[in-house]
Amino acid sequence: MKLVGRRNFLRGLGLGVGAAAITPFVRGLLQRAAGQASTHRRFVMMHTMNGLGHRVNDPVRRWRPSGPVLRPDTLAASHAPLAPWASKMLIVDELHNPFNNGQHGCGHATLSVRGSKERIGGGAQSWDAWPNPTGISLDVYMGQRLSEGQPHSRISWFGDVEPMSADASRNKVSSFGNTTTAFTQLFGSFDPGASDGEIEQRMMRGMSVLDTLRGDLTRLRSRLAPAERASMDQFEGAIRETEMMVRGAATGGMSCTAPGQPAGLNAGSHNGVYSPEYIDVMVQLQIAALQCNLTSVAIFNPVVSRRYYTNILGNWQPHNLAHTDEAAVSAEADLVRLDQFNASLLARYIEGLEAVSEDGGTMADNTLFAWYDRNGGVHHSLSIPHRHNHHPLITIGNPNGTYDTGRYVNFPQYRHCVSDGFVSMLNAVGIEDSSFGDPSECKGPLPLG
Amino acid sequence: MTHARRISLPLAAALTLVAACDGSIGTPGGGAPDREGPNIVGSEIPQERPEPAPAETVGIRAVQSAPFQYERAIHALVPGAPPIADRLWGLLYSYRDSQLSAPALMDGTVFRELMGYAAEVGAMVAAEPSRFGPCVEVRVREGADDRACVEDDVANFLYRAWRRPPSDEEVGAYASLLFDNPGGAVAGVEDAVQATILSPHFVFRTERGSGDGGDTTLDAFERASALAFVLLGGPPSDSLLERAESNALMDEDGMREAAEALLEDPAHPGVLDFVRGYADGRAFANSAIFDWEPEFTDAIHQDMIDEVRHFTSHVLREDDARFETLMSAPYSVLTPLLAEHVYGVPSEGEGWNYTRLPEDERAGLMTMASFLASHTQPGKSPIFRGLFLRQDILCDVLPGAPNVPELPEASEHEPTTVRERIEAHTSPTTCNGCHRYMNPLGFPLESFDEVGRFRSTDNGLPIDTSGTLLWNVSEPWRGEPLVFDDAVDMARSFAQHEAARNCFVAKLFHYAYGRPASAGDEAEVRRLEAHFTDTDGHIPSLVIELVGAPHFVKREVRANHQEETEQ
Question: Model's pTM, two decimal places?
Fold first, then answer.
């Protein structure tokens, strides 16, 4: 890590928009320096997929704790890397997803439960609900509520080739899939030799380009037939968001602790060269972005391809393993190793935010960390089709103190919807919503006492 | 208030020339460039560019370009521009968006990534400012400051980029990027180019039409664009713009003649882009199926993607160009890799070669490996392949799926086939009410594995390849169910069936119009269906009939206007 001064200008857009990274951090620094109580809350979620349902091989306690009280010695093997935070953990089990007739669309279903009974164009849920988003996804909603005034409402990197997140208009929302893209857009290329005048000049140029585009969009939009205007909404939002970043950069002037160009930055994209280096760089960048207050919401999904499994575990067919049923105990060791690897990634985020002081504590104290396996329990067994029930949910931290931690809660099957768990998480970061998704299916926060 | 500017055509030729002539364009040696147009050597024909459409026009339509159309448009504007990087393709092409419909992804991440790409293109032009225009070049190289001259360059550049004459207001805004740029003249070029290709006028294809409040028709340039995006997969070529300039596209014969010329030119993609989208080939390109088949190399994967294009090209240009052939031909065009690793047939030599396939195994597009792999879901392929055939090859809308109850957690103690498992799991009435319309279409394709290789057993058991096409009971009576022995039987049946033929027409309509057909299009769709039947499914004839119709260039503005004023 090194200090990135204002002169360390970012040229990711050909203009240096990434310098917007500076201002929010400055604001955060000043706030901390003044000793003000922060109401800032953050949300970090690891979202796993592709068949690692927690009930697979669970007779050997891969996932389930040995008792209702979570301590390092009661955690299951898969969660060992999270042992230092056992007392801050909450593990809930047997959440169900009523929209379980999709295939891998469970990714959308689980993240986009909000309003997901609608199909595109209205009407009942349909096969064509996948892969089309069915409503705003949890991470986008969290970003809207928690990241106001920050340059990125949310930052995500996913192994998926498809966007898993969506906005309220059901437009898909992209994720970083490439390390260089992520670095450039978050921190950019440093230009330590630039003078103040040069920096101002670049910012003015950026605003001029955006002003021109906004003018085009405004003129075009006003003359579009009403039905055509919706297609411009996301475009307009993109310009607005980028303008905010440029303006933020223009009014900045101090420093942010940001990463230098990480080793392995050219690890590339998940698509083709997925590797431990790729994961490592993405984790570094996302943690640094959180530390710099570029956003308050981070979500990631480390699992996607055979390369992931191969690189982590050796020559191995992940999807076949994912299809193993409970009789295939030979897969247990590999499954535990994979889960532990995933858990270790989440642990890095916790450690990263614990390293930054805030409000007399650390950033981690104001952050809710979560691990959600979108595939649920048994969906990938050989003999049964994909399903999205028996979901586990793990949270670490409890910024608003809305429930007790250090507990394992195994709910009765089919009683609580996954989005009930989402409501509990919203409450835990201070968002006092009472439902998420279809209220006829999801009744509100989990009864966690 | 607008004023006419001078423009030079053919534009593409001029651009190419500019790129090739190493600064010899314009007014070398200083002096103000010729206000009547750049001094381009060759066939330049300065002409009066039409006035922009009046600002009070309402009901304008915006058709988002597909990523491949966007990339081609950039390369046409700035020859030699870097390709859109894989990362941007991935961002732009949201997973499984068919090429028949445009991607709906322009969020902040994509926009900023495009901004970075556009900056690269801008820097490229700024390094050779003659590519923007002769007056801009003089301004950059010699500091000349003839604003009117530079504005003409801006107008020409925007015209080439946006495929229509820009308004004075637009020219003024972009000229400001050049003149009022704090970074100087070079930065001005960079920023103007960047903004031009980020503009919604470039990202979208806008249609204002001409008319006086009622339904309007596309003007000559919009017709050129509409034709180009169907048959060139990108912006108009210089020949098309010449036709637009000379008003040769303003009648049916002119449109048909232009379409025929484009279809006959092997240098143009014609309808290959459409067929690739029709087969959902792009989804295959992104398919994760190869994550599960590590022995399949990237080279094989790429060849499978390209096979659709080579096969379709052969059908259209070297065979009889009929729909039936596309859907049932007993051959494909293969590389040695495909022949050996996918189709299990002798290779016909290096490169792409016409290759006969076993007639009891393969028949046309539906049995092509990439098509099969595109719609694979391990353990559930019959459902997803059948669903695609039902919805996208037959255009049959299925009722919404119910809230499917949890299935019993069966454990397999004896081997079963995928078909047996699916039949067992979807046999309850609540499931079968919908699955009976899709599963039996996917079962014949069980003779192909997840990546499209022919097989005769599944899980060690013989495969039952029989299938049935039940007509949707919610639709008008369409005849007795069709019964198939196997995939080839089904493919041949579809190839001759009116439902599949009409669906092809509907898909082409969607692609060409940039939207699915609506109630107001019904008569035109019926007419095209009849034409397709009358011509024995001749695909080029269908394309010409579609783009040559008055309906293709008509836009209903009044309804939009009314809706707008009521808000």
Answer: 0.67
